Amino acid sequence: MRSGWRGWLDGISTDSWLDQGATLNTLSPRNRTNGPVTFNDRSNDYQLNQFYLRMKRDVDIEADAWDLGGSVDFLYGTDSIFVTSRGLEVHDDLSPKWNSQRYGLAMPQLYTEVYAPWGNGISMKMGHFYSTLGYESVPATGNFFYSHSYVYQYGEPKLSPVSWEKRRLAD
Questions:
Q1: Rounded CA gap, 140 and 50, in Å?
Q2: pTM for this one?
Q3: Where do runs of H (alpha helix) occur along 2-104?
Q4: How far apart are CA 128 and CA 157, in angstroms?
Q5: Tens digits of per-residue pLDDT, 52-83?
């Protein structure tokens, strides 16, 4: 266990990726949609799904002190329409604010995380972040396949507003 505060800029990391592809449909629908499929929803068409940029600072769960972290993520591409936030990228009636085309910009995660050294350690995330449930995720780097299952698309939550986590095992 380490004690004491670390500097505000210590531990900030950035990562980015590009996810793109094409989904072929032998029926070649006239409207070029792939029915109930979401993230790779265009038939016989190239898609730049995600150009993703993340800036993140993880909380230090090894220290015996309070710590502050968080993440801010930006996603540009066709996947943006599946992770928009009411009030941010879309109006309350779900009409777009600035994304009116097929490609758009979204901020799927913007949260802060606070770590408290109480007991075995506890952290709390506040803001807009991905759900901890499920096998698949919005970031392309967390998925085995290019496409998503119907369970992910229609049965799992994608985003959560608040999360409590017990971060350390008993000493």
A1: 8
A2: 0.79
A3: none
A4: 12
A5: 999 999 998 887 889 999 999 999 999 988 88
C-alpha 44/C-alpha 79 separation (Å) is 17
**Long-range Cβ contact pairs of 114-118 (< 8 A, separation 24 or more):** 114/59, 114/66, 114/67, 114/68, 115/59, 115/60, 115/61, 115/63, 115/66, 115/67, 115/68, 115/69, 115/167, 116/66, 117/63, 117/64, 117/65, 117/66
Distance CA 61, CA 1 (A): 9
Cβ atoms within 10 Å, residue 89: 20
Q: Which residues of the chain have pLDDT under 50?
A: 161-171
One-letter amino acid at 3 equals S
